[in-house]
Structure prediction request, 244 residues.
Amino acid sequence: MNQSELYLMMTVTGRKRMLDFINLYKDKGLDIHYLSLGRGTAQKRYMRLLALDDTEKMVCLTVLTGRKWLEVKRAMSVRLRIEAPGVGIAYIVPLAAMGGKRELMYLTEGQGFEKGAEAALKGTEQELLVVIGNQGYSEQIMDAARAEGARGGTVIHARGTGQEKAERFLGISLASEKDIILIVTAAEKKADMMRRIIRDAGPETGAGAIVFSLPVTDTAGMTLRPQTEDVEEEQAAAQQDAEA
Prediction:
């Protein structure tokens, strides 16, 4: 892990305990979070062994530096005793890129991160775009992504915290109710797609979207070929049918 790079921290815990994590993060200077409801799916006997009988969960997404992660991890161990069964889990995933310098400053305020916007952190063939926008604007966001070749996306409803800081960095007010749109795309399309989303659905629009990407190691059950190849195949198949 590189202490100077950016990561997405995912925290999963019971709904009643999430406030303990949020308060700890706030004490460590982390104010921007995106919270969503979840439900555990492990079999009951395993849940009992782990003292995780409560399957009602909350998921928290937070952008932080590797250095801040080490600080928060130590605090979770000491203050929340996260290693004990039933407390929760937290893990980090490296960010591949961030769309927009102002957005980067907004998500990393107080963490001493100085790398420029859209900085490539990891290199993979596919990447996962995570777009966080105001609730009700997912189609506007997807229209922007489709214009650069996106096939589709998955929408998760969430609630943002620390939105009052958006006015300082972005010059706007953000609604707390959020849609998180997940889009897998070929790495070579990522930069254009992120720029189009920021242009057509970014902070200066009603959608108020912020976008970053995560490296995807591998995929199954999906094809990420250019759409032109699909069109060419369909035309060839249609011509064969006509000749037959």
